[in-house]
Specification:
Elements (H helix, E strand, L loop, with lengths): L3 H10 L3 H10 L1 H16 L11 H14 L3 H7 E4 L2 E4 L1 H10 L8 E5 L6 E7 L6 E7 H7 L8 H4 L1 H17 L8 E2 H6 L10 H18 L6 H4 L2 H15 L4 H12 L7 H6 L3 H22 L1
Parallel strand pairs: 2-6
Antiparallel strand pairs: 1-2, 3-4, 4-5
Helix pairs in contact: 2-3, 2-4, 3-4, 3-14, 4-16, 6-9, 11-13, 13-16
Length: 301
């Protein structure tokens, strides 16, 4: 029988945008449900290699799909990790804008000129204001930005298609930035020299302190315990404890989280479970906890 609490939890799962992100991270039942789903996706055999057997990556992917309001299976096929940044295919960005009804009808493109004078203008009508908007990109911009100078650049082999993608993305980013939430396309990330301008935050200072403490602890090897300190399993168990602290998990929630990552429903404590695990499974727990830490850090930015 469905209780009032279960109904509320279900409503949280179906939210999109920032509500979905915060409810997933702060609501324990929803967080656990998302972890289970991420584990199933990672073992399904229907996701790209960068998501296979990687529940943490699948968790982030599911979170992003909820925020963008798109099918997770589709999104997994169209996103990539490029230097620690999420890149999406241009078709996905355009599909998201169309799905959200930002424009009346599809984006249209008009070309003019040839060779170095070639240009493309993307035009659309804003759904709310009925205002026609447009954005032009020309070959002069392509040259100035160096988009065509990279080895294997598609600007050299299929320039008109790249004009369509880039002008559409710029149009969306200019007039409907909420659609992409700051995400860049794969080509944009590869073309641009991305500069990290994230300001210093207290949370980063705390994380640095935890990392420093972990490094210091690893360096403290007393003669009588040298063999134990260099044991890979002991190091991995220490890292799990530090990641639990870094993620801000309360003891009871930490127990449930680790069991969820391992798919263990027994009555054993996590200490008992971890003691019997091979190093490969301990590494799965570490990756899962690292994913939680990364997700929480992104939510605070």
């Amino acid at each position: 029988m469905t209780t009032e609490t279960e109904n509320k939890n279900l409503q949280m799962v179906t939210m999109t945008g920032n509500d979905a992100m915060m409810q997933t991270l702060l609501n324990v039942p929803v967080f656990e449900q998302m972890q289970r789903a991420a584990t199933l996706f990672s073992k399904s055999g229907l996701v790209p290699k960068n998501f296979e057997n990687n529940p943490a990556a699948c968790f982030v992917g599911l979170q992003l799909a909820a925020q963008l309001g798109v099918n997770p299976f589709m999104l997994f096929q169209k996103i990539y990790n490029i230097g620690g940044k999420i890149g999406i295919e241009a078709q996905v960005a355009i599909a998201i804008a169309n799905q959200r009804g930002v424009f009346e009808g599809p984006i249209e493109h008009k070309f003019s000129g040839q060779g170095d004078s070639r240009s493309c203008t993307a035009t659309a009508i804003l759904a709310k204001s009925k205002k026609a908007v447009s954005l032009e990109i020309d070959w002069k911009t392509v040259n100035a930005e160096g988009w065509n100078k990279k080895g294997g650049s598609k600007w050299l082999t299929m320039p008109d298609q790249m004009f369509r993608y880039r002008s559409s993305l710029w149009l969306i980013r200019t007039y409907a930035p909420e659609c992409l939430m700051g995400l860049n396309s794969i080509d944009e990330i590869e073309d641009m020299q991305m500069i990290d301008v994230t300001p210093t935050r207290k949370v980063s200072e705390i994380n640095d302190a935890v990392d420093a403490a972990f490094a210091e602890k690893q360096a403290e090897v007393r003669p009588e315990t040298k063999e134990e300190a260099t044991d890979p399993r002991a190091t991995m168990l220490e890292e799990i404890e530090l990641l639990k602290t870094k993620a801000g998990l309360k003891p009871e929630f930490a127990e449930k989280t680790i069991k969820t990552l391992l798919g263990d429903s027994s009555d054993k404590t996590t200490a008992e479970i971890l003691a019997d695990l091979p190093e490969s499974r301990l590494n799965d727990v570490i990756k899962g906890l690292q994913g939680i830490v990364e997700a929480k850090e992104k939510a605070k930015r």
